[in-house]
Hints:
The chain has 7 helices and 5 strands; from the N terminus they run αβαβααβαβααβ. The chain has helices spanning 9-15, 27-43, 57-61, 66-88, 102-112, 127-133, 136-143; strands at 18-22, 46-54, 93-100, 117-121, 147-151. A 5-stranded parallel β-sheet has the order 3-2-1-4-5, with helices on both faces. α5 packs parallel to α7. The model has no long low-confidence stretch (mean pLDDT 84).
Amino acid sequence: MLFSSLLDRSKLMRIFSQILVCCDGSKYSEKAIRIACDMAKSYGSELTLIHVIEKTTKSNILAGSEYTKILRKYAKDVMQKAQKITDQEGIKSRIITKEGNIADEIVKYSKQHNIDLIIVGSKGLGAVIKFLLGSISSKIANHALCSVLIIK
């Protein structure tokens, strides 16, 4: 069982009662969702799935345009797929979509909603985005007040 050698089940149930899973449509994100489902089953955790639409200079200039519509449709598709995974695993999940700086919005949400654990993939959708934005998982790990599990 996940983490069973580190802490007993009752402590983990209290420690990780609220889990936030970052969803971006990547294979690492899907793996993070599956691990979160395993933890939720084992420890009775509540699962929240979050996707943040990156607000860049380009998206601000093109706000309301086809570009923004594409980003919002992609977010909807990602979250439907993520929720389908949790449904198949028999886990009820809450869906949250935000717009803004990805790491900032995730950390802000985690603080506002008393999240105990953030699960995020180590890599997102591409090297270009990582180059432009920096490592989102690193930013989350450095700024979150709760534990962060980075999935490779």
